[in-house]
Specification:
heterotrimer, A alpha+beta (517), B alpha/beta (425), C alpha+beta (180), B: 425 residues, alpha/beta, Rossmann fold, Ubiquitin-like (UB roll), 18 helices, 13% strand, C: alpha+beta, Glutaredoxin, 2 domains
Amino acid sequence: MPIITIDQQEVQVEAGSTVIQAAEKVGAYVPRYCYHPGLSIAGSCRMCLVEIENMPKLAIACHTQVQEGMQVLTQSDQVTHARRAMLEFLLVDHPLDCPVCDQAGECDLQNFYMEIGQYDSRFLEDKNKAKKATVIGPHVILDQERCILCTRCTRFCEEVSQTDELGVFNRGNRSAIDLYPGRTLDNPYSGNVIDICPVGALTEREFRFQCRVWYLRQQNSICTGCSRGCNVSIHYNDSRPYKAGGKRVQRLKPRFNPEVNSWWICDEGRFGYEFIDQNRIEVPYRRVGGKLEAAAWSDVVEEVSTALKTALEKFGPQGIGIIASPQLSNEELHLIHKLFGELMGIEGIGYHNPWEPEGLHDDFLMRADKNPNRRGAEEMGFTKDSLSLLEKAASGEIKVLYIFQHNFQEEAKKLLTQVEYVIFQGSNWTDTADCCDIVIPSTTHAEEEGTFTNFEGRIQHFDQVFLPLSESKNGIEIMTLLAEHMNYEWPYFGPDDAFLEWQGKSYQELNDFGDLI
Amino acid sequence: MPIEKLVSEHFSNPEARKLAWYRSHGGYEGAGKALDEMTPQEVTDEVLHSNLRGLGGAGFPTGRKWAFVPRDTGKPIYLAVNADESEPGTFKDRYILEWDPHRLLEGIIICAYAVGIHTAYIYVRGEYVRPAEILQAAIDEAYREGVLGKRVLGQDFSLDVYLHRGAGAYICGEETGLLESLEGKKGWPRLKPPFPAVVGLFESPTVINNVETLAHLPKIMVNGSQWFAEIGCERNGGTRLFALSGSVKKPGVYELPLGSSLHELIYQHGGGILDDKALKAVIPGGASAAVLTQQETEIQLDFDSCIKAKSMLGSGAVIVMNEDVCMVKAAHNIMRFFAHESCGQCTPCREGTAWVYRILTRILEGNATPADIHYLLEIADNMSGTSICALSDGAAMSFRSYVKKFTSEFEYHIRHGKCDVNERL
Amino acid sequence: MSAAFEFTPENQQRFEEILSRYPRKRAAMLPTLHLAQQQQGLITGEVELFVARILEVPVVDVREILTFYTLFFRRPMGRHHIRLCMSISCWIRGANQIKDYMTRHMGVESGETMKDGSFSWEAVPDCLGACEMAPMIQLDKDFHGSLTPDKIRHILAEASKHSPGSKDDETKKHRNAKTN
């Protein structure tokens, strides 16, 4: 492993790594546009020029391989001058769009320029005009004038999505990135070009003009769109509720995890966050005279715990059926197992929806199972046979059925109407919720801390992003209320207690990129 | 002193296009000798000692270039003949293609034998339609007569030569731009290292040589490296073709020993200045070369002398300008070319060439200030040494020389909004 | 929506031969496009799709090639096409005056086609490699230099006389010279 010197700091690096990678190891960030660790090397933006001893010219850090004893300067006068020069060149035809450009605040042209730019423009010509604000796909808008031709997007379409929609046409300063005529940027990973575009040339349709990025805060989370569990960052706005129709979640961005999703996420996952703010069950409901009516938490907790206790006393554990969900966190599932399985002795705890259609599956990130924690539910030892539970409930063998999150199809609804007493606990309205006796509003994963186990058995942690919406409560709190009402010993105050009991370690001991069970 | 005509001896004689005629006048003797009597290493050594240097523009010693090629990679080695000739002012390779195509083929055979090459592509610029037809006819004839193919000149050596026409892009004359184009992609030059000698065409070791460079090989084989080296000057062996154009009475291709004087070329061979006007400036080696003022034209035409004069011999395109030529407009014309030909891949070239062209346009329109002169020089510095290939450096060297050496003409345009040299041109 | 493009049987044969020259299909890109333009007169969207298919490359790559190089026509040109060189040596020898003359004589600007479809022309900044005869034009395949207004008139008149009906006549004329 060669040892090189960067800005007078010695560092040992892997053989075959490039100077730009080595620089990151010592915390020297070399500005760059075309370089991206997930794509091939283009070496065309020339922004990463650095000074290397004994080399007559400045060299691009992204392409230069480290050699033993190499001496690199990333902050010298020559380097600074070259960076300013490249920025000046890039700004020649760049439109002064900052006031109307979504990228403002997270734009690498702005960022590098503010850090090092020469600030006084010497460009006196008329700027060239090109296509602006052109929809090129269901999620992406192209602005050719803003493009700095780093070619990250064309390389992405060629190497990662392998769908070849974008190309660089013409040559010289007439070069323009565009779709092949007649095509659309509609591959299942189209949203990733928005992330990798360093400027506002490729922007997100859904996010357009919604919220300035400096009003956004972000927290780590896990995508709940399928069983891969791509790592994400939830970007939310909770300080200016008058923006963007009061939506809290403004967008998702993928987080780098080399074991799960590297730098990418599919469009289904990226744009599948609406359920966090929309169509939520906001208060508890009771069925009164055939109709669901809003109720108070105390009343509902009282009614549900009484029903459970009574059923347990009169009919024993066989009289109660639980259908948990592969969308619940490991912590919730663990406590379901604790309360219903252990303390109440109920054996019939299922998790599966036999009518759930399989979703799109590919050989990249998307998996057919569109639930984030099936593996977690399986590992808890729950039964897959929810159908029998439903049938037993319909036939009257099970008196009280407690369903979590599910959206059963027609067949199930017929069965459900025959069940004596059905409790639904979930975050969003579903057809199933509509035909239950009690509806308990729980939180989404964004409003509670926890973990999911992905399809390959990787336990991944997600943060609590914001407080529960309206009167919804997180699943652990709900179970605590029920347990206490039923006078069980219940020493669990939060998800970390459940996790500690389940895995025997704390969240701090979890690896950044998740742990295989 | 009689001028040696080495590669140009058959120019203007259409008979030379025929294999039989060429052969009866010494043709394929050099290749025959190499294949029959010499080892590949001996051939390379001869070329090295001849001081033959690349005549397409870079002037790199040919023998040394061949020596960079690794022979043990297990991959085929290729030869790409650079007949893309697009440097403004250059037309000498065209003459070889049109008048002496077999000499080129013979040179290709010699190079292929020396380096272990069995497939060669001749990349001819797309605009050279008739020359390409003539060359193809020569290739076909060579195959028919057993000069190319499985047993070259009856020897146990195979060589396939294919013509590959370009489609209009100066940047495809850059070595790696040519390779990219040959592989069926845009002519975007590659990052170096790796160099083409190691990773070239189809990821295999590749030699890229200019047409004229190869055309000298037959006589070097026949007469020896010392003979060739002595014709030229120190470290620049032999003769070369000069493409003389511009304000001269007799523009054309002239073959002179390297080290000949520029004045000899212009006055003795070129007939002197058009309309007997005063000589104002000369570009010694194609549009990418720095312009020389009249006082600077007392130079020798060889690679090293031109570098010392802070210009370059380049492609041997000598462009003469008399007192009627406005240097601001000349710079403008040249930058129009570079802006048009920039491939667009990297920032300094893509933006710099077009920006400079726009500034020069503004100067010609009378809309500029003295600060613009200062900007031009700074942009030239920013375009030098920062790009992927030498187009940016060449463009910068070029326009910088006009601005620096003819500043008064730029200042006049800025101050008065018109030309004091020639409004008409 | 015009019909899909296919090579004529002769051109298909030529294409097979072209392919055999390279270890990879993609390398045949330029010769194939030249051949298609020879047959069709220009490169249409259908030609792009055809070339992409037979060379097994994404069609966007074909369009990149098409727009990068200058010799491929993407709209119909005149029966004859003229390129007037405006580079440094030709400019020194009066190319601007020739350009003015040609604009007046042809009646259309550079980059346009005459209304009767006989000639299209363009003044190009790239040196055409014939500076010894500056100022000069490339008319179809040939170079004509030392231009004066008279000479231009003469050249155009001659070309009109021998105007072939279709581009394929040219191919037949040079049967033995495979320029692909």
